[in-house]
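Thread: hypoxanthine complex, take 2
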Amino acid sequence: MLQKLHEAADFIHSRIAVTPEIALILGTGLGDLASLIKDAVCIPYQDIPHFPVSTAPYHKGQLLIGTFCGRPVLVMQGRFHYYEGYSMEQAAFPVRVFRLLGVHTLVVTNAAGAINKGYGVGDLVMIEDHIKFFNDSPLRGQNLEEFGPRFNDMSDAYTKSLRTLAKNIAQEQNIPLHEGVYAYMPGPSYETPAEIRMLRTLGADVVGMSTVPEVLTASHAGMQVFGLSFCTNMAAGIEKEIKHLDFSKVGIDHFNRLISEMVKQMP
Ligand code: HPA
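Output below.
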C-alpha cells in the first residue's frame, strides 16, 4: 500500500510546480468552485497510478492543482464512495497521497440531507463531529506508522480553530451557517424515515454517504480538517418524498464565498 501511495504521489509531483498546502474535496454538485482555480494543472484520475476512478453522477473525476485565493491548492473534483463498490481504504486513498505531497489541511464538502428540522434546503452546515455506524474503517488492517498511530484520537478531528474561523467569516459576510453532527450512512438508498428518526434521537443533524472515510484518514495523518455540508434535501420522512437534490443558487453562492474566505484566511 505504501508503495502505491508513493507512486501516485510521485506521478502528481512530476506534473506540478507548486507544493499544495490545502486539499479541497468538492462533493456531489459542488464542483463549480473549481472554475475559480488559477493556472490549474488538470490531472484525470485515470492517469494517476493506483487512483480509483469516479463513477458517481455529477462527478468529474479529476484533480486540479493551482492557486485559489492566493494559496496553492489541490482540488478533487469528484470523490470515491463506498456505495460505488470501493473499499473504505480506496475511498480514502487520495487523502494519503495528498499528505505525501505536503498538504496539511483538508477541506471536505458534501451534499447532505437535513435531519434537523430547524435547517432548510440550501443551508450550510459546518461539521463539528460525526457518527459512523458501519463496521468498517479505512484504517482497518496494518497500521501505516508513517502516517499516524494505530489508535488515533478523534477528539478534535474537525479542527476547532477552523470552525471558529468559519463562524467569524460567516458573521462578517452575512452567510447563514449552522454547526452540526454528520451521520455517515452507506447508501446507495436514502435512509428510511425510521432510520432518520433514530439518527435524530442520537444527535445527528445531517446525513450523507461520504466524507467520513476521508476525515478518518486525514485525522490519522495529522491533518487539519474543515467539513462543510450543503443541505440538498430534507432527510427521509420529513417531507413526502426525496424527489431530487436541490443545489439552490443562493446556497451555492454562500458555499463559494465561505470556502474562498476560509482558504484565504486559514493557517
Ligand atoms: N441521505 C443520504 N445522503 C444524502 C442525502 C440524504 O438524504 N442527501 C444528499 N446526500
